[in-house]
C-alpha cells in the first residue's frame, strides 16, 4: 500500500538492508564495459563524493564515521536505520536531510551492487560511439542519461512480461542492476521514468553520490492498483551538484486539449559551472498504448508550450528526455522535430545517414506477443548544443530470445546516454 515518504524512509530501508549484505567470500569478477571502467578511475564522481563529504563534515548534524570497504556503505545505511536514536524517534530519520548523510564513494557502491549480483550473468558491454563535431570544445562534456527504469509495481503486477522469470524482477537485485547501470556511465544529468522507489532508494543513494534530485509522481499512478505497491511512479530528474546549480524548477502536469491528464514532466533551468552557461532540462513520460496517439500529441504540444516559456522563447539551450510512448511516425514526434525550439533527436546521429532513429529502444514479450518499439528520445537544441558521443544500444543477440527485462538487464527500456557540449555563442 502507498505510504507517505516519511514512513517509507524507515520501513523500506529496513527491509532493504539485508539485501545489501555482502555474501561470504569475494564476489566473482563481473565484466564492466571498458568504456565505463576508465571513467570510474576518473575523478568526476569521486570529486562529487568528496564535495558532498565536505558538506557533510561542515554540517552540524550527526555524521557517521567512515569504516572500511563495502562494510562502510552497509554500516552507514544500517546505522541510519537501526541507530537507537532513529528507531526511538522515527521522525528524526525524516528530518535528517539525505544531503547530510555520509557521502558514498561510487566505487564502493558499485562493488556493493556487484556483490549482490554475484549470481547473475555479467553486464552487457555497450560502447560509446564518437560523433563528428562541428566545433571543438575544451570544456568537459555534459553526460545525459535517459531511462525508463520500469516501476517495480508495474513490472511485478501489471506489465505481463510473460517470458521474464519473476525472480529476475526481485527488487533487492533489480535495484542493484539499475544502480550499476547508472554508476557505469556516471551521468551529469539523469532523467528517469517509472520511478516508484524514489524516497527509499534513489534519492538517498544518489544524493550521497553528489546528485540533487527532484521527483514528480503521476497523479493516478497505475502502481497504486498493485498490491504491496511502494507508492506512485513518476518522473525523476537528478543533476550533479558539482557541475550545476539549480536556477528554477517546474513540476508540470500535462494537459491534453485543456484537460488535465495523468502524465507529468519536470523542467529545470540549471546554471552550468564549466562552461558558465544556462541549460534547461526536461523529463517526461507520455501516455502509453495504441489508440492514444492524439492524446500524446496534445500532451507533447502542452509540454512544448511550457518549454517555450521556460526557455524564454528558445533563448536557453534545452535538453528534453523522455519515454514518449510514440514511434517516430507519430504526430507527437513530428511536433518535437518541427518545433520552433529547434530540437533534434540525439540518437538519430547513430544511424548511417544521421536521419533515422534506432530500430528499438524497448523490446519485450507480453501476452499479446513481441513488442519492439522506438519510444525513448533525447531531444536537444541543435543550434546551441552538439552531441559528442552516444552510447550504442544493446544488440538483438545481447537482448536474447526472451527479450527484456531479464536477469542481465533490469528494464524493458534501454538507457540512452549522450555526451553534449555547448557550441560557441554567436
Ligand atoms: N487517469 C485517471 O484519472 C485515473 C487513472 N487510474 C489508474 O491509472 C491507470 C492508467 O494510467 P495511465 O497513466 O493513463 O497509464 P498508461 O496507459 O500511460 O500506462 C501506464 C503504464 O503501463 C505500461 N504499459 C503500457 N502498455 C502496457 C500494456 N499493454 N500492458 C501493461 N502495461 C502497459 C506503461 O509502460 P511504458 O510506458 O513502459 O509502455 C506505463 O508505465 C489506470 O489503469 C488506473 O489504474 C485510476 C483512476 C483514475
Ligand atoms: Mg513501462
TrEMBL record:
Pfam family of the protein (one): Exo_endo_phos
Bias-annotated ranges (Pro residues): 21-31
SUPFAM superfamilies reported in the protein's UniProt record: DNase I-like (SSF56219)
Superkingdom of origin organism: Eukaryota
Domain Endonuclease/exonuclease/phosphatase span(s) in chain numbering: 145-413
Region entry Disordered, spans: 15-39
Keywords: Hydrolase
Family membership noted in the UniProt record: Belongs to the CCR4/nocturin family.
Protein name: Nocturnin
Organism per entry: Rangifer tarandus platyrhynchus
Amino acid at each position: 500500500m502507498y505510504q507517505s515518504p516519511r514512513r517509507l524512509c524507515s520501513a523500506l530501508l529496513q527491509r532493504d538492508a539485508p539485501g545489501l549484505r555482502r555474501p561470504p567470500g569475494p564476489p566473482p569478477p563481473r565484466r564492466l564495459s571498458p568504456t565505463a571502467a576508465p571513467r570510474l578511475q576518473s575523478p568526476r564522481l569521486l570529486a562529487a563524493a568528496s564535495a558532498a563529504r565536505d558538506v557533510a563534515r561542515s554540517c552540524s548534524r550527526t555524521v557517521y564515521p567512515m569504516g572500511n570497504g563495502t562494510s562502510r556503505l552497509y554500516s552507514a545505511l544500517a546505522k541510519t536505520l537501526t541507530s537507537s536514536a532513529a528507531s526511538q524517534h522515527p521522525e528524526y530519520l525524516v528530518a535528517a536531510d539525505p544531503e547530510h548523510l555520509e557521502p558514498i564513494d561510487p566505487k564502493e557502491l558499485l562493488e556493493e551492487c556487484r556483490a549482490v549480483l554475484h549470481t547473475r550473468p555479467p553486464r552487457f558491454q555497450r560502447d560509446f560511439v564518437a560523433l563528428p563535431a562541428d566545433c571543438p570544445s575544451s570544456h568537459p562534456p555534459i553526460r545525459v542519461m535517459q531511462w525508463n527504469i520500469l516501476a517495480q509495481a508495474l513490472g511485478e503486477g501489471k506489465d505481463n512480461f510473460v517470458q521474464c522469470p519473476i525472480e529476475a524482477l526481485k527488487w533487492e537485485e533489480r535495484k542493484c542492476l539499475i544502480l550499476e547501470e547508472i554508476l557505469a556511465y556516471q551521468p551529469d544529468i539523469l532523467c528517469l521514468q517509472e520511478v516508484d522507489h524514489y524516497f527509499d532508494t534513489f534519492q538517498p543513494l544518489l544524493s550521497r553520490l553528489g546528485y540533487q534530485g527532484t521527483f514528480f509522481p503521476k497523479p493516478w499512478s497505475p502502481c497504486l492498483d498493485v498490491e504491496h505497491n511502494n507508492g506512485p511512479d513518476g518522473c525523476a530528474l537528478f543533476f550533479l551538484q558539482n557541475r550545476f546549480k539549480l536556477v528554477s524548477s517546474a513540476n508540470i502536469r500535462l494537459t491534453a486539449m485543456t484537460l488535465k491528464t495523468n502524465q507529468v514532466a519536470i523542467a529545470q533551468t540549471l546554471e552550468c559551472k564549466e562552461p558558465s552557461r544556462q541549460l534547461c532540462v526536461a523529463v517526461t513520460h507520455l501516455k502509453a498504448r495504441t489508440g492514444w496517439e492524439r492524446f500524446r500529441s496534445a500532451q507533447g504540444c502542452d509540454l512544448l508550450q511550457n518549454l517555450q516559456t521556460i526557455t524564454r522563447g528558445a533563448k536557453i539551450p534545452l535538453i528534453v528526455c523522455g519515454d514518449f510512448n510514440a514511434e517516430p511516425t507519430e504526430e507527437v514526434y513530428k511536433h518535437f522535430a518541427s518545433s520552433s525550439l529547434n530540437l533534434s533527436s540525439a540518437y538519430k546521429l547513430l544511424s548511417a545517414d544521421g536521419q533515422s532513429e534506432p530500430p528499438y529502444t524497448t523490446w519485450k514479450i507480453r501476452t499479446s506477443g513481441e513488442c519492439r518499439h522506438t519510444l525513448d528520445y533525447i531531444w536537444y537544441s541543435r543550434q546551441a548544443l552538439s552531441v559528442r558521443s552516444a552510447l550504442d544500444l544493446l544488440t538483438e543477440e545481447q537482448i536474447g530470445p526472451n527479450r527484456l527485462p531479464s536477469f542481465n538487464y533490469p528494464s524493458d527500456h534501454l538507457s540512452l546516454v549522450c555526451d553534449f557540449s555547448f557550441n560557441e555563442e554567436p
